[in-house]
Amino acid sequence: MNQSYSTFFKVDQSPEEVFAAINNVRGWWSEEIEGTTDELGEFKHHYQDIHRCTIQITELVPGKKVVWHITDNYFNFVKDKSEWKDTDIVFEIARKDGKTEVRFTHVGLVPAYECYTVCTDSWGIYINGSLRDLITKGKGQPNQSEQIANKHGIENS
Questions:
Q1: Does this model's pTM top 0.70?
Q2: Fewer Cβ atoms within 10 Å of its own Cβ: the N or the C terminal residue of the chain?
């Protein structure tokens, strides 16, 4: 059974609009992004000394799919430093019942992970809140890491 974290939502916007919003990573996840997020290649995300990761964009199928591969990752609040490394983040876009469904799966982010609670909470906020708002209202709320960290008692070292 696949225990990887997954969530989805439906919007009225077109698959093309959804695809463009997903690739505007600074618009919904974090403004602390280095590199290009809308073409195949690599970008980096960091939040203080709490979280850093290097992401390889491995698949971009306009209006259908975006796949990221985490090549490197660091959390200051977990013992197992391999968490997130070599996992994949998959965005699948499909037309369903006249709406566009966005399905987000972090393949490899499983309940056994020490970061599972924090990470799934974060993804829930960023995907179902910020990304959805970027698609439906034209504006997301990136950079919520501080509130999430505070809520979970995570401190900058």
A1: yes
A2: N
**Can you tell me the distance from the alpha carbon of 57 to that of 41, in angstroms, rounded to the nearest whole number?**
5
Q: Burial level of 104, CB count in 10 A (0-12/13-18/19+)? A: buried
Average pLDDT for runs of 10 along the chain of length 157: 90 98 98 97 95 97 98 95 96 97 97 95 97 98 92 88
Domain spans, the chain = 5-152
- CA distance from start to end of the chain: 37
Q: Is the Cβ–Cβ distance between 128 and 34 less than 8 Å?
A: no
> Element (H or E) spanning 21, and its range?
helix 15-23
The number of beta carbons lying within 10 Å of the beta carbon of residue 86 is 12
Write down the CATH number for the domain with range 5-152. Answer: 3.30.530.20
